[in-house]
# Entry
Amino acid sequence: MNLTPEQMAIGRRNFLKAIAGVPAVAALGAAAAVKGPARGGPVRVGFIGVGGQGRALLGRLDPASADVRSMADINPASLQHADDLLAKAHRPAAKHYVEWRDMLEHEDLEAVIVAVPLWAHADVVCGALEAGKHVLCEKMMAWDAAGYTRMAQTAIKSGRVLEIGYQRNYNPIYRSAYEGVIRQGLLGDVHFARLVWHRNGNWRRPGGPPSADYDPSKWGYPTWDHLWNWRLYWKYSQGLFAELGSHQVNAANWFLGSMPQRVQASGGIYRFNDGREVPDHVYALFEYPGGITATFSSIESNAFDERYEGFYGTKGTLIIRNENDALLFSEGSDASATGIEVGPTGAGAALEASETKPASAGGAARATSEQTAKPKQPSPSTLEINAFCSAIRAGTPLACGPVSAMHSAAWCLASNEAMKRSMPIKIDNGSLAS
Amino acid sequence: MSGGGVSRRNFLTLEFARDRPHGEHWIRVHRLAMACRFEVVLTESDAFAIAAAREALDEAERIESVLTVFRDDSDVADVNRRAAGEPIAVRADLFALLARCRNLHDATGGAFDITSTPLSRSWGFLRRAGRIPDDAELAAARACSGMDHVRLDPAARTVGFDRDGVELNFGAIGKGHALDCMADLLRNAAVPRALLSAGRSSVVALGTDGGGWPVDLRPTLARSRVGRVWLQDAALGVSGAGEQYFEVDGVRYGHVIDPRTGRPASGVLSASVLTRFGADADALSTAFLIGGPERARDYCARHEGTQAVLVLDDVSERVEVYGRCPGVRLELS
# Structure
């Protein structure tokens, strides 16, 4: 996607025009307005897995919604980092566990937030559900079909909330785009969607074990590298289709209102042949009913396109860039442009006034050490955890319950199969939903 | 544990909510116009007003299309092209703005002047390539600068120039004027509150977000934040030369030209003006940057409802405040 600043400006304006209708605006407000549970107080939660993603959720969690009592992680360094994060935010300390089963046994928790490597999702989530806990589990749902099927069945049997964390579902930009553009039919007939997540760098994380005698083998990882870089090995990971693609496939299924029927894919280890097993470049082509095709690509050799979801219709184009910027273009039109941002009020000023900033600097906040008016996007992760807690306290609906999550997981797994076998793969969506 | 009592945490949440009765998010609706960012900030509870905000931004574009000198097809470009030859009839809103500019010119002793384009050109600021003009160039520029060369006929609603080379430029008032028009439009659309701004230098507050819309004063050249104002149905204009200037032999030459001398204004780092309307705040901030503390003090004493905050260009960056403005609470840092 090679847009000039002018084109991007045009897109923003058109996006705004499109969402100016009341339903879209209401959706935007509602998304931003999700509050903590009104009755019952904050939900008592424990974290299972406080690595990078777990700590991202921990840091963005609204203490009014959830009270973090404890956290379990097999890496003591991660627990230490999580402690630091809580202390820095002046939040109460949470008790440490190594084994998540110990934590469930000894803590009076209502819910757990799970952010462990993909291969462990099914065991951890099912164990927590069976112990009577509500579960918010990071995407993707599970490493294989047997895992996600077991998770869904256990959730139903236990009567507990199971939500899979796709933060786009809670992002005000996506919600307003869906309500105001997609549902209003402003794109006309959409026959093509393009899902792009491009990076220029190595997925492999540098870093050593927490101590010289640290032994990860009792948790199934033969080496420290296998634990630390679990995303690079098939035993624990489903690669780029799962870690990145599932976000975008989930959003595309939502926006297109259907699921793929067939997928073709290719990919390989083209740049970082460093002992990893999963490809560093992947490409997939999803065929939806009604002559709709979506392509997904994720590469680790060029970041020009960054990440976006584009929906290309007979009347217009909707592009959501980097999860925070929506652009709408009409076919054959060159009207000018408006953008929309949503940010928390906080204690800062609504505006930082100075002499006139020209357009080249007008949008960007000035880089100073005493910034006060930097506009921030609301964190979809905060809204996600709030909604999870609301579902527990007040029975409000989930954005991505087990069935929806199974669909995106199934299609990402199918992409890997298509890539490995060099042949199109079909899935019976009906059997997934039942 | 999970009873209905109010915990300390709930209590704090309630306190917070009382402080922000209209929601915990601001919605920023923005577009590029007049070569800067125009923005309408709405409270979370007023998301319905996004449609009106979009129309308000359309209004800014419409006003730009009338006032701009960067396109050949604007009303003002037409006046600049032809008004030396014959009086040109102009639309009512443009004539009203011209009359207002004449009044502001007179009330500021000529420090605010919309005809200083030839001066800016001679100093190279129109091409963003500053340089010191020679005496002949400056004399030629001064000969065709000044509101005295502009003739307004209210009965015929015409504008004429008494010589060739005179040019109108609304750069020092257009943004504030546009915000005033946008605020009218929002008010007519029953939008209860919004904070409008252009290029961060022109601000108009419609209603209030709780205790007033908080806006920080942070001029580019000042070492630190000057203070914070809370605005309710009031406007702010900020002028300074921190974004456009050049230096020769250690002397800084800013882009704001004193129409009375033909030379870049000096002595004031930043001038902020708080008053009822954006057009006045814009124009007066420029006039006080040029006219300095004496002009600002004098004007604020004679015009109720105008407050000026000046940061002086001395070692201590002394801050001077003159006058008062209803609906404005000022807290200096």
User: Anything to note?
Assistant: The longest strand of chain B covers residues 25-33.
